[in-house]
Each structure stands twice: as C-alpha cells, then as structure tokens.
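Appendix C reproduces, verbatim, an entry submitted by the partner laboratory led by Prof. M.T., so that reviewers can inspect both the input and the predicted structure.
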Amino acid sequence: MNGRASFVRSLRIQGRVLHALLMREVITRFGRDNLGVLWLVAEPMLFTLGVAALWTAVGLQHGSTLPIIAFAITGYSSVLLWRNCASRCAMAIESNKGLLYHRNVQVIDVFLTRIVLEIAGATASLLILAALFTWIGWMDLPRDPLKVVAGWLMLAWFGTSLALLIGAGTAYSPIAERLWHPAAYLLFPISGAAFMVDWLPPAFQEGVLLLPMVHGVEMLRDGYFGHAVVTRYDAGYMGACCLLLTWAGLYLVREAGRRVEVQ
C-alpha cells in the first residue's frame, strides 16, 4: 500500500512539474498580450494557408486531380508536426539549464513540455483548417477517419523520437543544432508533403520510402482520400524506425541529464 501511495504521489508531483513548465513555456514564447497562446495554432495555420494559396495562385496541380487545398493541408501540416518538435527541442537544455538544478525537474520534462506544445499546435491547426474548408466546400470529409488518426499519431511519435534525439544531441555539442537546421530543409522536399510516392519512378520510390515520415504521410492521405489515391507505406517499418529512434533518444536524454548534474 505504501508503495502504491508513493507512486501516486510521484505522479502528482510529476504532473505539477509538467504543468508548471508548460505554463512557463507558453508565457515565455507567446507572452500575455495580444493573441498570446493562440499563436501556437496561428503560426502553423498561416504557414499551411500560405503554401495552399501559393499553389492555387500559380495553378499548380501537383500531377493529379486531387483537391489542391486538401493535398496541401494534409502534407504541410504533417511536416510542421515533426519538424517543429525537433527544432523546438534543439538547445532546449541550454536555455533551461537553471531549471534543471531543481530536484524534480529533469531533462526529459523540458523536452516533453515543448513536444506537447508543438503537437497540440499542429493538431489544432490541422483540425481547424480541415473543418473550415470542409464547411465552405473546398474539402471533403475523410474517407477513413481512424486511419487519418493513426497516420497522425505515427507522425507525432516520429516527431517525438526525433525531438528527443536532436534535443539531447545538442547537450553534447552545438554542432548538432547547426546540422539539424540544414537537414530539416533538405528533408522537407522529400518528406512526402508535395508528392505521392506512386508518382515517382520506381528507383526513387525505394529511396524515399527509407524515410519514416513518408510512410506516415502516405497513411494519412490513404485515410483521407481513400481509393482516389494509390498509397505505398509500411506501418510496421515506420513503427520499427520510431522505436529505434525513441530508444536512442531516451538513452541520450539520460546521459545528457547526467552531464548537467556533473556540470
């Protein structure tokens, strides 16, 4: 009974720590004035809307008859999900080092706070944009909502594991952050946001399918467009990649915490 009470007490303490860090992060990033925390949703919305508007303005048809708005929203929302998670965790230890000397605050708490915020913002952006354009008739309802949710959760898992890896890596050297930013830009055009794997030549298909996030985007679009698209993805492969990245990320996070304690 004592062990169970101790466990429950630890959970409550951890919950208070995460809540406090979450509130601190929101105020630090968005302030108390103007739109404040609404920018968490507005930022990814503006980016996605900008891309969709640009595609529409230039008459880009992305090689198919799929609705351009739906294609852009499903693609670029997914990019923001995993990219922002990793980018926000880069150098997070350095900027929160003072908090880490408190006994109840751990390195992983800092990362989880930022990851939760980015996933919440990207998810809210996707839901609001999809609801808005469905209401005005520019998008249809998803053919398989459960598969859409599954694809989104897989992308969130990938973003979380990547964020832990990149964030912990910056504790060892700032070079990790400098390498991540160009890598993120290079991954962007081959992440599946602007194309379907089936549109590529067979040789290129094998190459892009090595990237875990491509499988998540294909799964998301399979759930949204159904038989209107030919999708190529392997949820098992993506899950294995995410599991490996999560293991590596958690190991580095633990070691990064020890480095902070030594310093």
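The chain has one domain: 2-262. Additional entries are available on request from the coordinating office.
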